[in-house]
Structure of Alkaline phosphatase:
Amino acid sequence: MPGPSNTPDLRGAVRGLDRRRFLTVSAAATALAFTTGLPRTGAFAAPAGSPSAITSDPFTLAVASGDPLPDSVLLWTRLAPLPLEPTGGMPPSRFDVDWEVSRDATFTRVVRRGTASAHTEFNHSVHAEVRGLDAATEYFYRFRVGQWISPVGRTRTAPAVGAAVSSLTFALASCQRYDQGYYTAYKHLAGEDVDAVFHLGDYLYEYAVNASAGARAYTQPLPAHLNHETVTLDDYRARYGLYKSDPDQIAAHLAHPFIVTWDDHETENNYAADTPENSVPPEEFLVRRAAAYRAYWENQPLRMPQQPSGPDLRLYRRLQWGRLAQFDILDTRQYRTNQANGDGWKVPSAESEAELMTLPGNEQEQWLIDGWRRSSALWNVVPQQVTFSRRDNPSGDGTRSMDSWDGYPASRRRILEGWKASEQSNLMVLTGDVHVHYGLNIHDDFDDPSSRIMGTEIVTSSITSGGNGAERPANWAAYLERNPHMKFYNGLRGYTTVSLDATGAEITYKNVPYVSTPGAPLTIGGRFFTESGKPGLVPA
């Protein structure tokens, strides 16, 4: 149980829950969910450790940056000499970690220095919010503890608020199940000239990873404690250690700032708010969710406002790129109504079409619409998780995905009505989840292909999830036929780049032909353009 210095933190976390939900959680589960361990102070604080206690390289997971602002960027690392162990191989002490930011990679033009604490309670992760930087500027950064110096990362700040920006290029990535292939796509992404990477969810998968890492077919066995589904905080921490140790993923983080949001697998497949996939008591799932959210924050370049409070984490947020783009990053898992019709692909019913159904939750819906109303950006971009546009099953059985926006059509309609009321002109929705590339026009009425096109949806394929895939899956022709607003469909793995300027947006879908072995080349799967003020995808 926590010491006296933790009491205010516990009370503050409990106040964040409504009374109805709080009363569903037993006292024991409450203690677990809300005291996963905040750093203590005074006599209860973890002792400061001597750097000499770190006898092997603690920067095995390298570094990352994220959420660029005009004068600030978030720098991340985690001390983990043994990354596959839940503790990372670190002693239970607090360590002071120095950081520095430079205008050049050799650190002859250092502009900012500081020290951050790596707390044992946060698994020795470091989240350094560096302020006082110049807008629209490239920087290099690194960390140091004792004799150990981290790899050098590259990042960049956003343009000044209200600045005229000529262009912006960003990449989309999602769905990277470790045991279903190699992260070769990330190796190629590391070499791209992009301003930022949006990761759209499923950064981690909760499923067991066997000794040979599945499709990777390792001959050196992985630890046995990875070979079961993640449930506890130790489970999630060890799994992040495995995922983040991949060298190609490290290369992508070293090269670009990441802007992240989650989907389901960072916690559990297809969960909805406080409803788990399987029939377990709600208090049991909330403890698991608290562990998953805690480990997510520990292992991502997220700022302090995103630090979780028990089983809650405010992940939706808004970033600006001068007057060119506004990014409204959504969380479509934590607040959603439970899926209708028992989840899966089902025929729509009165249950799924009910007005009370909401995917982002009522508060987040209004936050998004209010943000559009106030936006002064040319492009309003919505990075989120599950397919927004309608998808009719190519089998012709009338079913649609209850886990996507098709299972929440009233929520989608409210969003689109809010878009129309904002009188903005350039809507782009960014999506992951489905392990394929799509290019979709968002129609005012999906039953009428001639209805107004409201915007475009860019769906990026997975990094590895689903295995090698195929350029034209078996349902390729039928999918395009039954969904005339679907302008592109490709089933290989990869990522997507989007370039915005005053004239329009160019979307390039990029593929690797296989992930079952490393070293795959990069190919262009498709290239499209949507004109500013005239939404609709056309081949480029």
